[in-house]
Amino acid sequence: MNFKDLPNYHTFTQIEQIHKGWSDDQKYYIENTYGEKLLLRISDITEFERKKSEYNSLCELVKKNIPMSVPKEFGICNDGKNVYMLLTWIEGEDAEKIIPTLPVQKQYELGLKAGQILKQIHSISSPPTQEDWALYFNKKINRKIEGYKNCGIHLEGEDRFFTYIDEHRHLLVNRIQSLHHGDYHIGNMIITPEGELSIIDFNRLDNGDPWEEFNRIVWCASCSKYFASGRIDGYFNHDVPYLFWQLLALYISSNTLSSIYWAIPFGKSELETMINQFQDVLDWYDQMSNPIPKWYESV
C-alpha cells in the first residue's frame, strides 16, 4: 500500500495495521508529529460513492455529539486505486471484555447510555427516495428463509421461526425509516479510560426501520443481560411499547435463520457459535411463544 500521496503522510510517525474485525476495509493505527492518534481506513476505489456518503453521514452524526471517531479527511489515494478516510482514534478497551466484569448497576447504566446514543443516531431521517420498508424487508426475509432451507443444515425448532415470521410480517407495514449504524452491538463499542461508552465501526451505515437496528442485541444479551436491558430502556426512556417486542422478535427470527448459512464458509467454530445462538434465541422467547425475551429486566 502506497501512503505517500496522502495529504499529511509526511507527519506520520507510526503506521500499524489493524487485523481485528470483519470489515473489508484495511485499517491502520496512526500517530503523527502533532501527537495525534488516528484511524486510517482504506477501501477499494469502486467504493468511492458509498464511502463518500458514509463520510458525510459521519459528519452529521458528530453534530449530534455522538461519542465516536471524528472524521477528519476523505479522499483518493494509492495512485487512484483506493479511497481513504482518516478519523480520530478512540482510546480504551473492548466493551464486550470490560462490561461483564462491572457491577450489575454499572452494566445497566452503560446499556442506558448505549440506548440513548442509538436514539440520537436514529434522529437522522432516511432520504425520501428510500424503498418502502415492508416491500424491502419482506423480500429480504424471503431470501433468508430460502438461504436457510437450501444450506443443508436443518435444526430442531426451525418451524417455530417460520411460523412466527409468517404470523407477524404484517407489522412491517408503514414503518418509518432512519439512518442506521448498521452493526450496533457490544462488539462495536469501547469503554474509554474514563469509563465512558464510545461507538466504533460505522462502515455499515444504512437506512431502515429504527427498531430493526436492535436485531444484533443478541450479542449484547449473550454478554450481559443487564447491558442489553439497559439499552432498550435507554432508547425508550423506560416506556417500551409491546409492538417493539413483536417486531424485534421478527427481526431476530429472520437474522437467526440467515446466521446459520452465513457461518458455513467460516468453518466449524463459527457455525457452532451460530447454532448455539439459534438455540439460545428459542429459549429466550419460549420457543417463539412470548415476544419479550427472558433476559430482559429493568434494574
Automatic annotation (TrEMBL):
<protein>
    <submittedName>
        <fullName>Phosphotransferase</fullName>
    </submittedName>
</protein>
<dbReference type="InterPro" id="IPR011009">
    <property type="entry name" value="Kinase-like_dom_sf"/>
</dbReference>
<dbReference type="Pfam" id="PF01636">
    <property type="entry name" value="APH"/>
</dbReference>
<feature type="domain" description="Aminoglycoside phosphotransferase">
    <location>
        <begin position="15"/>
        <end position="234"/>
    </location>
</feature>
<dbReference type="InterPro" id="IPR002575">
    <property type="entry name" value="Aminoglycoside_PTrfase"/>
</dbReference>
